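Hi U.,

Before I forget, here's the chain from the pilot set. I'm dumping it here mostly so it's searchable later in email.
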Amino acid sequence: MRILITAGPTREYIDTVRFISNASSGRMGYAIASSASRKKHNVILISGPVNLRKPKCEKFIEVTSAREMKQAVFDNFENADVIIMSAAVSDYRPASKLRHKLKKDDKEISLKLVRNPDILAELGRRKEKRILIGFALEDRNAKANALRKFRSKNLDAIILNSPAAIDSETDKVQIYTEQFGWQGFPEMSKKRLASIIIKLAQKLVDLRK
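Structure:
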């Protein structure tokens, strides 16, 4: 299979040194890329800023912002059989970036935010026969919110986890597909979970043939 994977957070800069981001470590996406490469799949990994060793893959692309990630995804998705969107892309960015470091004074400031592009939703509209797998990190109404995302983004599978997964070596997930419904998995290493995700992707590709 030809697999496109995104991993890690994005950063949305306020000035030359400060940015909005999240605590994603990128471990899950890197584990998926490593697992797919070990199984001899052709892997493109698009990564936000992380402190991880680059895994073996056919192509590795480093990005910083959500808009850079979108550009990289749509520059590379056409030949993919499977797209696995594990990156934690920032939903918002500052409306403008200051050209110099903001100096501290006694005044309060307000920061205007604007929406970032919804990469997953656009992929859902353009995927055609490609298998599209997304993640949902939820801390309340978890299954309902995950299913809403599954349907609104036109996904083939969604992997539901919780904030406990952030920067952890392990994860406990539930996976939903139309074919198999909800499947729950015990806490396990992200390396082992990555192998399960790649096997699921292969099943979904085979079912679509």
